[in-house]
Each structure stands twice: as C-alpha cells, then as structure tokens.
Design goal:
0% of the residues lie in helices and 46% in strands. The chain has strands spanning 4-7, 10-12, 18-24, 29-35, 42-47, 55-56, 64-69, 74-79, 88-95, 111-112, 116-120.
Length: 122
C-alpha cells in the first residue's frame, strides 16, 4: 500500500514563500493538486519518477518549483510570490502508469495524501 504524507502548509502573507513536502513510500510520478472552497481540484505541478519532465499549471508558472530527492523518497513544492488566490488545501498524488513523464490530470493518479492547508492572507 502506497502512503503519501504532505507537510509544510500554513499561513503566509502575500508575496511570501512556503515549501511543501510529500513523503512517498514508493518511486512514482508525483503531482501536486489544490482545492479551494467551492472550486474543482486543479493540477498545480507534477514531476516524473526520475525528476525530469516537470509540468506546471498556468496559474503557478514562474512562481512554483517542483523537485524531488529520491534518496529520501520526498517531493517538494517550493511556492514563491504567493497570492491570496493560492489559498487552498494542497494534495500530493502518485501514479505508476508513466515511465518517465507526468500529467496534471486528476484521473491519472491513484494514490492521494490527506492534504495540507495553505492560507495566503495579510
């Protein structure tokens, strides 16, 4: 059974930064998704199991950076220049169906973490 545990969420002022971590029990492609109240869950970023081929949603390009340390089975999401509209519960998800790429489609991911709250507010 694959387990995913997110950490690093919290309250930050607009323009600030946070780094989310996702500890995974297996080596797979990992995606970050977020869901704000009353909105659909959207893809934020993803990274292949080798660490290549990262993808980003249009709303976070140039502000968020995804990376991974396979020696620690951990994927990171560095979030800079945060905006109030980034406020959401952030989830990491994993899938083994891709060899060396990833997507931002929810349906491609099998395993999900419990989520961590990110609030951007002054």
């Amino acid at each position: 059974q694959v387990q995913l545990v997110e950490s690093g969420g919290g309250l930050v002022q607009p323009g600030g930064s946070l780094r989310l971590s996702c500890a995974a029990s297996g080596l797979m492609s990992v995606g970050w998704f977020r869901q704000a109240p009353g909105k659909e869950r959207e893809g934020v970023s993803c990274i292949s199991r080798s660490g290549g081929s990262p993808n980003y949603g249009d709303s976070v390009k140039g502000r968020f950076t995804i990376s991974r340390d396979n020696s620690k089975n951990t994927v990171y999401l560095q979030m800079d220049s945060l905006k109030p509209e980034d406020t959401a519960v952030y989830y990491c998800a994993a899938t083994a169906i891709f060899a060396n790429r990833c997507t931002l489609r929810r349906g491609d991911y099998v395993y999900w973490g419990q989520g961590t709250q990110v609030t951007v507010s002054s």
